[in-house]
């Protein structure tokens, strides 16, 4: 089944950057000078704070005067309402139409972020004004739609997330949801019916926010605060209940500062370090995103802080985003002002992709959600019980020693969970980085193709030069990303060492101490078990969502096929609508119908599609699914006899990624045949594992975690529903089979090149095959290659080149990837 990209309603837009310069405070007026000029509604000039610079310095450009241009610029005389009406209100209006919006204030300590976002009694801030707009628009809406507005308010303080709407909030964790992106698990969402109620909650939350008096600001915010308003709009059409969901995130960041300027020490200094860490991470993301628009695909390090993970959608995803850069006009703030403006200038390059969030009410998902909520309540209850028990213990002086042990164990368990969290983050970061480089390599391939084509018609013209330049940029990016990846790998090794140390300490504690310690560990274990179950449910929910999306896509596809159009017509119609159909070749000859047509499986060295001339055959394999299994990566290999090729295979499941290696080891073939023994009860096709010499056997016998996830037709378009001209080639190839790397021993995840890897991802979703890097196929078929993604345009080259390869005895490798992971497909366009 081809994946279909979002229709034309998806719009790419650039982040809108607004600069706001506050007035000098009365205190500042006595000892500083105003050096910021907002010369018109877009231009900001920062004068050189050094008045002594003479005329010569100025003309010779030795002055520190700087000039910037933004979408909007506001001087000290402007109110929050001016800023709102000119630059924000239209963005907010989109929220009740199902669009996402993010507004965040960025600037140094005391530059006016909180004043801009929250405001004062006589000058209400952007949070207040936005909420009023939302409720006004809902009131004025004369459709029969139902609206539901919910609100949450959180802060990120010292890299820990707290719920500002909870009196004594515990630490909250971030989760990744395939539908909603990053979410904060356990965050309270309160239904609200008026702007006044949200303002009440906002005031309550603000009173709980961590603020301190620093040298730079008497009420300096020490945390990053995110107010999120969700507007759910339900309307009925004749087919189903449709839900449109718009989300508005309003973010007041903590101020960046230098310790020397704030004159702080101890806790304040630590706060400052964490604030700066988050802001540094944000600045790095802005840098990378700004660079990404100019260069190839640079890696964006969202994972480096909680703040950047929360803001991820607002920075590059489905959100219309406004950055308000606040600056102080004081001459002693020159460096901060210029720094802020520099980042704001870079942020102008950032692009986001907005699209309406339309969904249907899904009972399964809401069931899972309810279960997760219940589990979360259970986890909170257990945590509280544990805390109560500990406080009871601490009042008995005779048990002082045990108390010490318990608190020591608490520290240890805290460290253990931080260690695990860090490892998950590092591994995910590494994974994302490799994905980025994979995209870079695909672009490289397209560039190589384009260069070759250009050279064929005109020798080294300007177009070729431009393409070569772009190629170099992509190569630079790949190198940068590889360096970053190497650093992540080192950090993973350090993290693993730390984990071993912690494990030793826990084991020692268990063997040295009495019952209490043991019981304590048991209760901690139970707690972790609950959290684990919760995660399992989350995964199940994610799978459910993915399944639903695939189902919807398949139905849509069947509908298109039923119209009786030919491939060309469909592609043309789709492109008129702005829809891109990827992997057209994956559409045909799949499913039980085509498999049943196969008289006998063919077990040649290459997967069958190599020998199938029609495009429609190219993806004829691939619907084997690996179920999630925690210890999958360490399982024994599937043994097989042939193939001396070197393969490296990376396994992913849930949060862990393993690199699996097979040096000069035989590889296995995974075949799916129609013979009856490969069909499990209920009519599902089963995977058969075979080598050229050995007959197929059911893989599930060796791998109980391996299964066919889908129904007989899942992921397929029945051949009977396909028009003949869609490349159906009866009898050309009669089995669905592909080369599977031998499942192997685990080895450290170091020094591999994704381009030469076979990456097998266990995601609980259907596998598919992609072929690329045709350029590498060219003249030297001496080393093994890996290919990702086949397109109609390149498969002809492929069939032309393959005989050379086969003759040279070199077999290309196929990357098997999950096409159903959110965003995967789009990476291969
Ligand atoms: N537009 C404005 N008009 C009048 N006063 C302002 C304006 N903007 C900011 N101020 C004043 O400047 C001071 C610092 O502002 P604010 O607390 O909003 O800064 P901040 O950037 O949020 O600082 P921090 O990062 O330390 O929290 C406050 O006294 C505030 O009242």
TrEMBL record:
InterPro entries: Kinesin-like_fam (IPR027640), Kinesin_motor_CS (IPR019821), Kinesin_motor_dom (IPR001752), Kinesin_motor_dom_sf (IPR036961), P-loop_NTPase (IPR027417)
GO CC terms: microtubule
GO molecular-function term, one example from the UniProt record: microtubule binding
Domain Kinesin motor residues, every copy: 14-350
SUPFAM superfamilies in the cross-refs: P-loop containing nucleoside triphosphate hydrolases
ATP-binding recorded as keyword: yes
Keyword Ubl conjugation annotated: no
Annotated ATP binding sites: 107-114
Family under the similarity heading: Belongs to the TRAFAC class myosin-kinesin ATPase superfamily. Kinesin family. KIN-8 subfamily.
Name of the protein in question: Kinesin-like protein
Organism of origin: Macleaya cordata
Lineage, broadest ranks: Eukaryota, Viridiplantae, Streptophyta, Embryophyta, Tracheophyta
């Amino acid at each position: 089944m081809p994946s279909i990209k979002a229709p034309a309603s998806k719009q790419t837009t650039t982040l809108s950057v607004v600069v706001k310069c506050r007035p000098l405070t009365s205190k500042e007026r006595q000892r500083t000078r105003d050096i910021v000029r907002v010369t018109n509604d877009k231009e900001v000039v920062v004068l050189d704070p050094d008045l002594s610079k003479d005329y010569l310095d100025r003309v010779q450009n030795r002055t520190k005067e700087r000039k910037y241009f933004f979408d909007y610029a506001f001087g000290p005389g402007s109110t929050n309402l001016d800023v709102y009406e000119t630059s924000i209100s239209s963005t907010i209006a989109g929220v009740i139409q199902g669009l996402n919006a993010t507004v965040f204030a960025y600037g140094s300590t005391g530059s006016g972020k909180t004043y801009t976002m929250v405001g004062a009694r006589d000058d209400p801030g952007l949070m207040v004004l936005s909420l009023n707009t939302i409720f006004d628009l809902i009131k004025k809406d004369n459709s029969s739609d139902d609206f539901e507005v919910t609100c949450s308010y959180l802060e990120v303080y010292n890299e820990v997330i707290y719920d500002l709407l909870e009196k004594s909030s515990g630490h909250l964790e971030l989760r990744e949801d395939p539908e909603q992106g990053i979410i904060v698990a356990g965050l309270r969402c309160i239904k609200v019916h008026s702007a006044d109620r949200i303002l009440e909650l906002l005031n309550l939350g603000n009173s709980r926010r961590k603020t301190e008096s620093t040298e730079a600001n008497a009420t300096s915010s020490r945390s990053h605060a995110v107010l999120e308003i969700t507007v759910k709009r339900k309307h009925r059409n004749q087919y189903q209940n449709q839900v449109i969901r718009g989300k508005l995130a309003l973010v007041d960041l903590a101020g960046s500062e230098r310790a020397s300027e704030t004159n702080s020490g101890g806790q304040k200094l630590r706060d400052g370090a964490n604030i700066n860490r988050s802001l540094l991470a944000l600045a790095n993301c802005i840098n990378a995103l700004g660079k990404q628009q100019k260069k190839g695909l640079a890696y964006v390090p969202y994972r480096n802080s909680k703040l950047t993970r929360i803001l991820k959608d607002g920075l590059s995803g489905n959100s219309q985003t406004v950055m308000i850069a606040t600056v102080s006009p004081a001459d002693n703030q020159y460096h901060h002002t210029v720094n802020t403006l520099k980042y704001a200038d870079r942020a102008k390059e950032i692009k986001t992709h907005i699209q309406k969030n339309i969904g249907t009410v899904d009972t399964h998902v809401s069931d899972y959600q309810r279960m997760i909520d219940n589990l979360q309540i259970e986890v909170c209850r257990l945590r509280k019980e544990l805390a109560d028990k500990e406080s009871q213990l601490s009042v008995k002086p005779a048990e002082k020693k045990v108390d010490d042990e318990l608190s020591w164990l608490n520290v240890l368990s805290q460290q253990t969970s931080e260690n695990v969290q860090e490892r998950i983050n590092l591994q995910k970061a590494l994974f994302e980085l490799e994905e980025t480089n994979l995209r870079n390599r695909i672009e490289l391939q397209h560039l190589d193709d384009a260069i070759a084509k250009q050279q064929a018609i005109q020798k080294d013209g300007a177009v070729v030069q431009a393409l070569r330049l772009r190629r170099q940029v992509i190569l630079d990016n790949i190198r940068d990303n590889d360096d970053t990846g190497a650093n992540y790998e080192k950090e993973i090794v350090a993290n693993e060492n730390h984990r071993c140390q912690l494990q030793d300490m826990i084991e020692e504690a268990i063997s040295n101490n009495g019952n209490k310690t043991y019981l304590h560990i048991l209760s901690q274990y139970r707690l972790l078990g609950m959290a684990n179950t919760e995660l399992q449910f989350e995964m199940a929910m994610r799978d459910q969502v993915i399944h639903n999306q695939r189902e919807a896509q398949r139905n849509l596809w069947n509908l298109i096929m039923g119209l009786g159009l030919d491939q060309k017509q469909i592609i043309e119609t789709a492109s008129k609508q702005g829809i891109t159909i990827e992997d057209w070749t994956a559409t045909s000859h799949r499913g039980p119908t085509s498999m049943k047509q196969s008289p006998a499986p063919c077990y040649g060295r290459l997967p069958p599609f190599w020998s199938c001339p029609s495009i429609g055959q190219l993806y004829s394999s691939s619907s084997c699914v690996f179920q999630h299994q925690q210890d999958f990566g360490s399982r024994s290999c599937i043994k097989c006899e042939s193939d001396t090729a070197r393969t490296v295979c990376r396994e992913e499941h849930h949060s862990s990624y393993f690199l699996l290696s097979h040096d000069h080891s035989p590889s296995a073939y995974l075949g799916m045949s129609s013979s009856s023994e490969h069909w499990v009860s209920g009519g599902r096709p089963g995977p058969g594992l075979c080598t050229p010499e050995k007959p197929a056997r059911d893989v599930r016998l060796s791998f109980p975690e391996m299964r066919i996830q889908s129904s007989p037709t899942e992921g397929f378009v029945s051949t009977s529903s396909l028009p003949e001209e869609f490349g159906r080639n009866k009898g050309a190839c009669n089995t669905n089979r592909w080369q599977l790397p031998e499942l192997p021993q685990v080895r450290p995840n170091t020094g591999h090149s994704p381009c030469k890897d076979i990456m097998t991802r266990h995601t609980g979703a259907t596998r598919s095959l992609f072929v690329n890097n045709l350029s590498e196929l060219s003249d030297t078929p001496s080393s093994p290659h890996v290919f990702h993604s086949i397109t109609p345009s390149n498969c002809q080259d492929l069939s032309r080149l393959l005989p050379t390869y086969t003759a040279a005895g070199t077999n290309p490798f196929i990357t098997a990837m999950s096409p159903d992971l959110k965003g995967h497909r789009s990476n291969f366009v």
